Structure formats: structure tokens, C-alpha cells
Backbone:
């Protein structure tokens, strides 16, 4: 599988996830999962090397090609994250990942 870690623009509680596979008709990932971490003071190496705790936001979920795949998040608890890790299975193209949520100040 492949993965990427992204730092969010601001700490937030995700409410809507959009995994955009536009322009990938035959080579999009079969599925994905999304994890989050709250680590505002961690350095890049710590995050990439796994020295931070990751929580499951979305379990492994099927994707469709050449479209915006939209997922509503229903967490039973309030968690805020500074980083997300997108895991794609087995591999393939993703045009965009959008994480929309409630911001904290």
C-alpha cells in the first residue's frame, strides 16, 4: 500500500472527507483509510517515523474512480487533529484529499 501524511491548515475535528479520484479511471486505489494525529509540536521526523499516536478516522473503505468520493464522519467523541495520514490500497491515483471540519482556536 501507499500512504501520505498531510499537515492540516489548523487543528480541527473532521466532519467531511473528500477523496477525489478525478482523471483516474483505471488506476485509482481500490480502497483507502484515514488516520489522524494531534501533534502540534512534533517535528517532521517524529511524525514520519511513527513516534506519534495515530487514531482511525475512517476504516478501510472502497473508492470509485474518476469522481469525488465523499464521506461524512460520525465520531462518537470529539477529537481534534493537526495531521492526517491517507493510506491507499493497494496503490493508485488520488487527485485531491479534502478534510473539512470544525476549527478550534
Residues:
Amino acid at each position: 500500500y501507499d500512504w501520505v501524511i498531510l499537515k492540516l491548515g489548523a487543528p480541527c475535528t473532521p466532519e467531511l472527507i473528500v477523496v477525489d479520484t478525478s482523471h483516474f479511471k483505471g488506476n485509482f486505489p481500490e480502497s483507502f483509510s484515514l488516520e489522524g494525529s494531534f501533534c502540534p509540536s512534533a517535528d517532521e521526523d517524529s511524525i514520519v517515523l511513527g513516534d506519534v499516536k495515530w487514531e482511525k478516522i475512517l476504516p478501510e473503505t472502497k473508492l470509485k474512480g474518476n469522481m469525488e468520493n465523499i464521506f461524512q464522519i460520525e465520531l462518537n467523541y470529539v477529537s481534534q487533529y493537526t495531521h492526517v495520514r491517507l493510506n491507499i490500497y493497494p496503490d493508485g491515483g488520488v487527485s485531491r484529499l479534502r478534510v473539512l471540519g470544525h476549527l478550534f482556536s
Notes: The first strand starts at residue 2 and ends at 20. The chain has a mean pLDDT of 94.
